[in-house]
């Protein structure tokens, strides 16, 4: 969609990233190995770095950067050292102006590719052959890890150690438990992210193998047609939204639609949820409905409205306004005679029809291979979605709950003024601060670093505010000739073609190019949502525009007429959920939230991946200039 000869050859380097006004000194907040430096500059300038706004849609507080470490440590071990992906190593990671950026590490040496392929075939083959059994064991491991994390506690440091230290002759102070349990919490978090990638890249690999077979066998086939061959699979990720729909149906049957509607809307729900419960408890029908509501809360409401990578995100259980608002919307639709069920039978019929049409074009031998690869793709697909429930939602919910307990301990000890101050320290600084608290308590002196940490936290607060006030540029650095990492391609939608579109994004004032996420063409007014907190602003019929959507936004898809995201690939959660609900979607546009403004009219085409502006692009010359600055780079070399 842009002139090739005028398209820049690279993005700015990490060292050329402009710091937002007020954000100076941000580098000191994060572990040194997450920050670009002169020591690593030569390495950094050889790579393409793209923003992981899928998981960190805003700048990450210092403590929240632990996720960037755990995630890409997990990617690295399983891609590089355990399953040995033939053409891809792990992803390097940096924090730039508070945002997380990652760089795929490709392999082009044919000798090394062949050597790794032999390891991969042996090890991946074992998992593919025993997938169901091993996946069952994976669920057991995850449940055990979540339970272990939930069992961690941080003893209050009173005037004296408890009597049990003497009576049971333990020979050690319970204050040691504070430090040990903090380390256990961190270790369990990292272990969970090891488990996460035990299956994920293999899942993507299974799908990509089928995808590549189809592209070779059917040169004119669309990406959408391939993805629809694995649609209609019932997975755990849809269960929370299914619970909301069931509760909406029950509300209609019990004649409680008006009661729920009167409970409030949007942010008002938070104020009226308690009053609503009181009103429901006063009637038999209300009590019946509340019993079903409460039964659904554990575990299905332990569900973040994004991906649970930052401490300040709510789950449905911590902010009941979110599920209550969705239930009320669904109940209104059911009462009006609308069918709100997921069209799973239609999806399966279409899926089988597409499979039959393409399979008929193959020879007997090719059809046998097609069947095997399609079977593998359908076998691995549930994990691609279900892991999200166990890891990003259930385990992260427990992890952040425990960090809040620890933060409260530091407030009670006198180190912090308020619990949220905890997250302005990175995980190593928390370790130092805890050590200070424990040792000072043991010695019987005031906390030695109280003023030091309080002053540093106050210095960091305006810096963090400045970092979060701006959007993340989609990429830095030099694009490789070919992007081969399955995680980058399938989850993030970072393909060779998409990078070229990003580089030329400032040259096309008429629209954006993205990845076709879900079929359909729709015209409408856009609503730009920066986070889940903006969801109540979404109006019926609007096109939802966001850095990325989460599976927990499913209720919003009953309101929106289409979806556009900055990042995401064919197998990202936004694309999968939109396909399952029949909502047109274009993902991986790179600049949607930067270039589109709420109220602007667009047309999106979920087959071609194009977004056309119907009433102009950026609103002002200043905004257009800001966009040009984001991709105005020097020529390569």
From TrEMBL:
Residues 539-609 form the PEP-utilising enzyme mobile domain. Gene3D superfamilies: Phosphohistidine domain. This is PEP-utilizing enzyme. Pfam families: PEP-utilizers. Transmembrane segments: none annotated. NCBIfam families: PRK08296.1-2 (NF006150), PRK08296.1-5 (NF006153). It comes from the Bacteria. InterPro entries: PEP-util_enz_mobile_dom, PEP_Utilizing_Enz, Phosphohistidine_dom_sf.
């Amino acid at each position: 969609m842009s002139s090739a000869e005028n398209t820049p050859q690279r993005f700015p380097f990490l060292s050329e990233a402009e710091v937002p006004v007020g954000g100076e000194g941000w580098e000191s907040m994060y572990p040194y190995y997450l920050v670009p430096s002169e020591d690593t500059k030569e390495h950094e300038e050889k790579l393409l770095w793209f923003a992981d706004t899928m998981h960190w849609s805003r700048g990450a507080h210092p403590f929240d950067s632990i996720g960037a470490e755990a995630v890409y440590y997990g990617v690295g071990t399983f891609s590089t050292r355990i399953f040995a992906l033939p053409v891809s190593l792990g992803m390097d990671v940096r924090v730039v102006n508070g945002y997380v950026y990652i760089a795929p590490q490709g392999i082009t040496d044919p000798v090394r590719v062949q050597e790794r392929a032999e390891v991969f075939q042996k090890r991946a083959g074992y998992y593919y052959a025993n997938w169901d059994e091993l996946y069952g064991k994976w669920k057991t491991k995850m449940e055990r890890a979540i339970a272990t994390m939930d069992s961690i506690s941080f003893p209050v440091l009173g005037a004296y150690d408890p009597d049990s230290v003497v009576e049971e002759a333990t020979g050690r102070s319970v204050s040691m438990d504070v430090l040990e349990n903090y380390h256990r919490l961190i270790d369990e978090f990292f272990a969970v992210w090891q488990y996460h990638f035990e299956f994920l890249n293999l899942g993507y690999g299974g799908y990509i193998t089928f995808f590549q077979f189809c592209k070779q066998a059917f040169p004119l086939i669309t990406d959408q047609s391939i993805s629809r061959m694995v649609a209609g699979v019932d997975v755990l990720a849809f269960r929370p939204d299914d619970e909301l729909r069931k509760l909406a149906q029950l509300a209609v049957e019990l004649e409680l639609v008006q009661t729920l509607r009167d409970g409030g809307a949007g942010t008002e729900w938070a104020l009226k949820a308690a009053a609503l419960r009181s009103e429901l408890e006063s009637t038999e029908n209300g009590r019946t409905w509340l019993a079903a509501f409460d039964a659904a809360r554990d575990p299905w409401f332990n569900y973040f409205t994004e991906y649970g990578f930052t401490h300040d995100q709510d789950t449905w259980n911590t902010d009941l306004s979110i599920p209550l608002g969705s239930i009320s919307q669904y109940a209104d639709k059911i009462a009006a005679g609308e069918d709100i069920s997921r069209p799973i039978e239609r999806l399966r019929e279409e899926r089988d029809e597409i499979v039959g049409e393409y399979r008929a074009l193959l020879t007997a031998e090719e059809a046998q291979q097609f069947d095997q690869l399609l079977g593998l793709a359908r076998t691995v697909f549930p994990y691609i979605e279900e892991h999200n429930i166990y890891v990003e939602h259930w385990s992260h919910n427990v992890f952040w709950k425990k960090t809040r307990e620890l933060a409260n301990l530091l407030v009670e000890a006198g180190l912090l003024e308020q619990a949220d101050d905890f997250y302005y320290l990175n995980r190593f600084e928390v370790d130092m601060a805890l050590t200070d608290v424990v040792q000072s308590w043991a010695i019987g002196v005031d906390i030695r670093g109280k003023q030091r940490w309080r002053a540093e936290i106050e210095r960091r607060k305006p810096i963090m505010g400045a970092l979060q006030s701006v959007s993340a540029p989609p990429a830095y650095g030099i694009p490789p000739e070919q992007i081969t990492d399955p995680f980058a391609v399938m989850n993030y939608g970072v393909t060779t073609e998409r990078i070229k579109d990003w580089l030329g994004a400032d040259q096309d004032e008429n629209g954006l190019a993205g990845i076709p996420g879900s079929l359909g063409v729709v015209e409408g007014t856009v609503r730009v949502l920066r986070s889940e907190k903006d969801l109540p602003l979404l109006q019926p019929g609007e096109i939802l525009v966001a850095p990325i959507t989460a599976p927990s936004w499913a209720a919003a898809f009953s309101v929106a007429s289409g979806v556009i995201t900055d990042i995401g690939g064919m197998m990202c959660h936004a694309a999968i959920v939109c396909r399952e609900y029949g909502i047109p979607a274009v993902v991986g546009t790179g600049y949607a939230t930067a270039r589109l403004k709420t109220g602007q009219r667009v047309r999106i085409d979920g087959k071609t991946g194009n977004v056309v502006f119907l009433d102009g692009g950026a609103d002002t010359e200043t905004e257009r200039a800001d966009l040009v600055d984001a991709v105005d780079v020097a020529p390569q070399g």
